[in-house]
Design brief:
The protein is mainly alpha-helical. The protein has eight helices and three strands. It has helices spanning 2-9, 13-22, 24-44, 80-87, 90-97, 113-116, 136-158, 160-204; strands at residues 50-57, 117-121, 126-133. Strand 2 (117-121) and strand 3 form a beta hairpin.
Amino acid sequence: MEKIQNVDEEIDIRVIIHSLWKGKWVIILISIIIALIVFLISFWFIPKKYSAISYVSIIEPILTFSDESNISITLTSPDISSLVEISTTEALLNKVASSPAISSFRGIEIGPISDMANSSNIGNYLIKLEVISENPTFSMDIANIWADEFVSQVNMQFSVNAVANKLDSQVTDALDNYKNAQANLEDELSLNQIDKYRAQLNNAK
């Protein structure tokens, strides 16, 4: 009895395959209908998204300074994570949004750039700026403008020129202080000489 029961409980794969083969046209028709429905929903109801990406390469600053004073300057590269934060600051994105090139898209409904802009670092020397929107030209223009403004901001804060300008202002201040100190010293010396001559005249009398 147990052997007969085990045989009855076994699943015959050939029967299942035969049943599926008999209903193959129904299965194919249902698959086509589902695929068509998904396509129509994605085409008519789900808006298309276009992505534009700009890459910004971070190069270590190099400054050579030669002078009789033997001043040596060592520059360090900014932290990559801090640059990613700078790229998504509200001030920078507002500057991108106010660019004249964006005025041509006034007829298109667009949200805040912060909602479509993503920034991330790739390794230690490359930053990825990505813009995703429903308009491919808008995405491309925003990505390019964003990269230009970001590079300008980084150069303003961390470039060799920025360091040189700071150094130049410090040298100018140091020279002014030196000239003032020298003038004060000369005035002091001249007063001391006058007192010395008066003392000699008094002694001569």
